[in-house]
Amino acid sequence: MTHCTQEESLVINGFNSVHLSRAKSKKSNKISGGISVFVKSNLKAGVKFLEHKTNDYIWLKLCSTFFSTTEDIYLCFIYNPPSNSSYTQSLDEEIFDLLETDIEKYSKSGSIILAGDLNSRTGTKQPDFIEGDNRNGVNQIFNNFDPDINVPVRYSMDETISSRGKFLNDICIETGLRILNGRTTGDSIGQLTCYTPNGCSVVDYFIVSENLLSKVCFFKVHNLLGDLSDHCQISVLLNIHCKIKGDTCQTQMSLKSYKWNENSTELFQEALSSGSMQQKI
């Protein structure tokens, strides 16, 4: 989220960016928030920014031909303001209603990834999928029916479930999306993502189509940088590869552990001082 105008928006060398800003607040005459998305310039050819109905979220299409995926991936970055905010109260349509309509539309053409601050506390008592789902008793006319797979149990350090959280869980069930927080390598306990004077919560998520779960290498909630934000950065790594100007770029699985021996210290120091590593550093 950003409160910058288009002219003040951050520019990063080697990245293309899109900035969405809300209208100025009538009381303060300041930008009331927005979203900035940065895409590495060498990936630009495979990323298409799509039309959006509101400046509270933005859709990108990751083209299957560029990223060598079986189908296009539709990635949505979203900021859903608190339900009691004056901005939310002024909206003609609920952001979740608009989002659900888009999810249904794009799901027909590819897989879905949602990311951002949804201001929704989903707890753990209400699942985001149908437990024990199967095709038993399903009429043959519903040949396209795909039962929910048994995904790992989702844990969370925030056990509270809000009305928005219930709605988000319902959206996941209806559209085949799954929350990564608390059930993915890198975040097995559902780390808190937001720290405020009123308390701590999990409101920032990565949520993916069920068929993308096998592509997720890890999901991580980073340490809080309180001087910058009261929210933690969240990140995800997908196991895909793409061709960039004849070269193949492929994500790599992170090692779960390292075995050290008496030569490891010297080898580690040599690796750090190598030319290729110095460039990366």
Automatic annotation (TrEMBL):
- Supply the InterPro entries for this chain: Endo/exonu/phosph_ase_sf, Endo/exonuclease/phosphatase
- Endonuclease/exonuclease/phosphatase domain: residues covered: 73-234
List the GO molecular function terms.
catalytic activity
Q: Which Pfam families match?
A: Exo_endo_phos_2 (PF14529)
- Per its record, how is this protein called by name? Endonuclease/exonuclease/phosphatase domain-containing protein
